[in-house]
Amino acid sequence: MISIKSEKEIQKMREIGKIVAQAHEEIKKHVKVGVTTKELDKICEDFFLSHGCNCSCKGYPQGDPNPFPATACISVNDEVIHGIPSDRKLKDGDLVCIDIVADKNGYFGDATRCYVVGNASETAKKLVQVAEKSFWEGIKYAKEGNRVSDISHAIQEYVEKNGFSVVREFQGHGIGTEMHEDPGVPNYGKSGRGPRLTAGMTLAIEPMINAGLPDVFVDDDGWTIYTEDGSLSAHYENTILITKNGVEVLTILS
Ligand code: MF3
Ligand code: CO
């Protein structure tokens, strides 16, 4: 079931969205050669806790024998998503994607930023740019009356036009009183399919794109997703609100 948020709920979505955006601004200052992904995770966690939020990813899903053990998902180079923070130090040329989710007053915000560290390859830089731009291309279609897959199609078209591929196994999602709500929002497919977009829907739109083939696999840790061919991967994400006049991006500071 797709939930339509009331004005009161939207205020809470805006509040958590802003905190998630601010957390990214804070983390970004520390993304440098030599920092460990665990240190970045700690900065994120401290930020969320000091802003009265729960770290939604830590211990998710509840009751799972192998829940996600950290606050931030930090995925480097050929890691696509759900990388577990560790003592790994970022190196010159690394591509790092940081995916963070927090909840406050019962409402969730979800956003991912991707960076290249130091002197990266042209491919790495372009991949990061295309992932981000594909989000904006997609949300041009995020308006009342359009269908979910209009967003999906626009993302895929833009990514493939730029010579990269779209991961199929993971997708964007509704978000609100839970991290993952209906509808699923694939990053590929024909336009004109899926539920109609309506004012009051809140969605996490999150293209995951690879420099090589789209195929991925799960690591033995049960979380980290890698590209099958070892190629670089990038991820970009924001929580958005469909409005009467278009779209509002909740996880970007205005
Ligand atoms: N932002 C991710 C998502 O949209 C985070 C979920 S993975 C978690 O699905 F387990 F760490 F929470
Ligand atoms: Co998400």
Structure overview:
With 254 residues, the chain is α+β, with helices and mostly antiparallel strands. It is 27% helix and 26% strand. The chain starts with 6 loop residues before the first helix and ends in a 5-residue tail after the last strand. The model has no long low-confidence stretch (mean pLDDT 98). Cobalt (II) ion binds next to loops.
Q: Say how many strands there are.
A: 15
Helix and strand pattern: HHEEEEEHHEEEEEEEEEE
Biggest beta-sheet profile = 5 strands, antiparallel
Low-confidence stretches: none
* Backbone structural class: alpha+beta
Instruction: List ligands, each type once.
Output: 2-amino-4-trifluoromethylsulfanyl-butyric acid, cobalt (II) ion
What is the overall silhouette?
A: globular
Q: Indicate how many domains the architecture comprises.
A: 1
Mean pLDDT: 98
CATH class, named Alpha Beta
CATH homology superfamily: Creatinase/methionine aminopeptidase superfamily
How much helicity do the residues have?
25-40%
What is the level-2 CATH architecture name?
Alpha-Beta Complex
Terminal CA distance = 30 Å
Strand proportion: 25-35%
Q: Given the structure, what is the number of helices? A: 4
* CATH topology description: Creatine Amidinohydrolase
As a whole number of angstroms, the C-alpha radius of gyration is 17 Å
